[in-house]
Amino acid sequence: MPWTIVLTNTVAFALCFAVWVVFGPSVRIIAKELHLTLAAATFVKTVPILVGSVTRVPIGMLTDRFGPRLMMPSVMATAGAAVVYLSGAHDLANLIGGAAVMGLCGSSFAVGVASVSSWTPANKKGAALGFFGAGNVGTAITTFCLPMLLASLGWRGAFRTYGLTLMAAGGAYALLGRNAPVKGLHPSLSVILKPLASLRTWRFGLYYVATFGVFVALTLTLSDIYVDAYKLSLVKAGLLSTIFTFTASIARIPGGGLADRWGARRVLQLAFGAAILSLTPICFGMPMAATVVAGFLAGIALGVGMAAVFRYIPDYFPANVGAVGGLVGALGGLGGFFLPQVSALVKVQTGSVFLSVSPLVAAIAAALILQYFAIGWAIAASAQPKTESADLGRLSDALDLAGKGLPGEPLPDPSRTKQDQTADGSTKRNPGASRDKGEKDV
To answer: Is residue 71 pLDDT above 50, yes or no?
Structure first.
């Protein structure tokens, strides 16, 4: 596996992620200078998140068709140019238009997933994708670096610096990046779109809502808790929130390795459970030190969980990683937009900033319950008679419709000969495959 490819994509994704959240520390200054209302400033801040989430699907499809060496520099150059344009904005329309185009950098995730997966052998995909996913640390880059640039250059100079840096990095990617060799013809549009009709794809997306979506929402919610409940300054609250953000990003690296070793299903289950146990006590209010520790532990769990979700994709959809990864990433990004709104509503209705964490716990619990029933359905379906070819075909169709497959147990294939079956009628396992891999997880 060429680790230079993994590193190149990780750095590109980290820079894109840093730009994606550039309005976080800067929107107050911009709103004051341009006399924006709170509602308008909030909308400007969220536009890139929405655009970056939604465009992950088409950008992922285009990556499957044209390759990451073209798509990643295109995304980075376009977004970088938009940030430079924003540095000259003088009204709300300029800000919204520039923010929408700049939001394309959020789709870089789908490009990177396709690139890393295409170069990585099956037994190391989890580790490689986990390392790439650590590019989420781009949020920490902006948390620490942008305030200093704002102080020294002003927001317009800081934006120009960000934009030009991203454009230069896009040029470097064009020189260093490579497309994996493609056997045969490029996939047609119908082939690329086919996995989007699978319920399994959407189920993976819901898992990502409960990991990445909660990660984004908790980043915002923890800051409110530190300010409102513990009366910390915004600077100190940001630093403590960064402990969670940085931990979750780095935890994706070992999370991918664990998914390679133990299987995505098993690791994701444990991550869901650990996140619930870590976050539930926060809902009832704790001393600040305990909340920081709970956030740290939740960061580990969510980081591992994010890596486990994407360990599924290259095994189930090896030829459509960009499209499927784009949809899964889009759903997770949308979760990161809507979950904070629900948390804010709970805070207003209950008057408790601590209870604003409860919708996030509920989202994780819902995903865990969904996975539990998915396993049960798969086990029930596997108990159906499988001696006739027609029965086998119906069983395979039923499992695929529900998005299931038993861990470590390949579905029987009616086209196989009797020599491929064991004495009890089950299918022989590939001796080269590692045990309980993501491709047979539910």
So the answer is: yes
